[in-house]
Specification:
alpha/beta; 6-stranded mixed β-sheet; 13 helices; flat; two-stranded antiparallel sheet
Length: 331
């Protein structure tokens, strides 16, 4: 309620004086929040849940006899929120509440990234500039035989989601069309401090980490925990230039040795960061399992980034509820 109240002037600018009255942005955000908190897999099912659930109607702000929205109308109205960067503003308002409640650390952080599987199929990953061959037996879902064909992001792209890139998590894993979702968490209580979604191009995790470090308010030196994938000399040097001490896990198998030496590892803070950095996996687990981001339902880097940021705000709300519960009970 506090976050939406602070965003009220922004919502006023979104309304048009012409045409039919649209769904209020506040109700759209509340409904979107319910979808993530209760793992509702589609907008159509969400409308059914709101239709017969009294608690859902109360949370969204609908009267008992008010007809529920059509799923298509809900989706079209939600797309208007993309144009005003509502997800980022909502995330910022929730984060500000956590700061005011002294739930965050302003000097110890952890960064990591994960692959989010795109909603496009490998069948749609075709050679650039080449027309799709129609199957007379099934023109809507033609048979495509790509076995033995060399395919890469340089020569191929998805016809249904061009922003998705072919990527795999590690050696021996299958390649899938994916996006790279990145988080920056604070080490105090594991709250998400920032998000960044990029194309999965191989260096996206390190690029996103530097982008998020730059947005940390200047004034004091911070520590940044990370796994072995960030142990490169260029990344470590960039972190130090940005006034961040890289508490990166050492990759001893790396050619040329680790970029992290005893100047960093000898301190007790380095060992603490290595313990705390694993908390970021809890965030990814919640986003993929509860918020249903393991297999994306949206297409395009802008829309996927919007959903990813909004889901991070939902995670912070759930985490803050648990952190503030002892305070409320004692009061």
């Amino acid at each position: 309620d506090r976050a939406l109240g602070e965003m009220s002037p922004l919502f006023d600018d979104m309304y048009s004086e012409l045409g039919r009255p649209s769904i209020a942005p506040e109700k759209l955000l509340r409904a979107q929040l319910l979808q993530m908190l209760y793992s509702v897999r589609s907008e159509r099912l969400l409308m059914e849940e709101i239709d017969y659930s009294v608690l859902f109607r109360w949370f969204v702000g609908m009267n008992m006899d008010e007809p529920v929205w059509d799923a298509t109308v809900f989706t079209k109205n939600r797309d208007r929120l993309l144009e005003h960067n509502i997800a980022q503003e909502f995330f910022a308002q929730v984060w500000q509440q956590a700061v005011q409640a002294n739930l965050t650390s302003d000097e110890h952080f952890t960064v990591d990234g994960t692959l989010l599987e795109a909603g496009a199929s490998l069948k749609s990953f075709q050679r650039k500039g080449e027309a799709r061959s129609d199957d007379p037996e099934d023109p809507g879902n033609p048979t495509v035989n790509f076995h033995g064909e060399e395919r890469s992001n340089d020569t191929h792209e998805s016809s249904t989601d061009p922003d998705a890139q072919l990527a795999r998590k590690g050696g021996g894993k299958e390649a899938k069309l994916s996006y790279c979702g990145n988080l920056l968490i604070e080490n105090g209580n594991g709250l998400i401090a920032n998000t960044e979604l990029l194309q999965a191009n191989g260096t996206a995790e390190r690029d996103a980490a530097l982008l998020m470090i730059e947005q940390i308010p200047a004034g004091k030196r911070v520590t940044l925990g990370a796994d072995k994938g960030y142990d490169t000399r260029s990344f470590v040097a960039e972190c130090r230039q940005l006034n961040a001490t890289p508490h990166v896990s050492q990759n001893t198998k790396r050619a040329g040795g680790s970029a992290i030496d005893a100047r960093t590892t000898r301190h007790a803070g380095y060992r603490i960061s290595q313990q705390k950095r694993k908390r970021i996996e809890e965030c990814f687990g919640w986003l993929k399992t509860i918020a249903l981001l393991r297999k994306l339902r949206h297409r395009g880097i802008f829309k996927v980034g919007w959903i990813f940021t909004f889901a991070a705000a939902a995670y912070n709300l759930v985490r803050m509820r648990k952190l503030l519960a002892p305070v409320v009970q004692s009061a």
